Amino acid sequence: MAEEKEFKIVAVGGPEFTVGFKLAGIETIETTDPKEDFEKLMVDQSIGIIICDDDVLKELPEQLREDIEAKVKPVTVALSTTTAAQETLRKKIIKSIGVDLWSKEK
């Protein structure tokens, strides 16, 4: 049987965004140059998931954002505090795993 490889999760954003991830033990990058940070992260073979502030993702050049969206590994998840973004995330999770994690029904 093939050996499973472990991948890191990295959160990228400002101090307000990354503090919760840091407290949870997730590696964080408080970015001042999102383009440079993402270019490094995208080629790091040890990273499986990049969690970023939606505002940071919007600062990136369009071509880099397209490359990030097309890449299978690492997977980049942009989080936002807006209701619209939360609904989009909810729909993506339902489509992906078939379960509504926000449902109040048990």
Brief characterization of the structure:
By secondary structure, the protein is an alpha/beta fold. It has helices at about 15-25, 35-45, 55-60, 60-70, 85-95, and strands at about 10-15, 25-30, 45-55, 75-80.
Q: Could you walk me through the main structural features you see in this protein, from its secondary elements to its overall organization?
A:
The protein is α/β, with parallel strands linked by helices and 106 residues long. The protein has one domain (8-97): ATPase, V1 complex, subunit F (Rossmann fold, 3-Layer(aba) Sandwich). It has 5 helices and 4 strands. It has helices at residues 15-23, 34-43, 54-59, 62-70, 83-97, and strands at 8-13, 27-30, 47-53, 75-79. Strands 2-1-3-4 form a 4-stranded parallel β-sheet, with helices on both faces. Strand 1, helix 1 (15-23) and strand 2 (27-30) form a beta-alpha-beta unit. It starts with 7 loop residues before the first strand and ends in a 9-residue tail after the last helix. The model has no long low-confidence stretch (mean pLDDT 84).
Which residues form runs of ≥5 with pLDDT under 50?
none
What shape does the CA trace take? globular
The neighbouring-strand order within the major sheet is: 2-1-3-4
CATH C-level: Alpha Beta
Q: How many distinct folded domains?
A: 1
- SSE string, helices as H and strands as E: EHEHEHHEH
- In CATH terms, what is the fold-level topology? Rossmann fold
Count of alpha/pi helices: 5
Q: What would you give as the CATH superfamily?
A: ATPase, V1 complex, subunit F
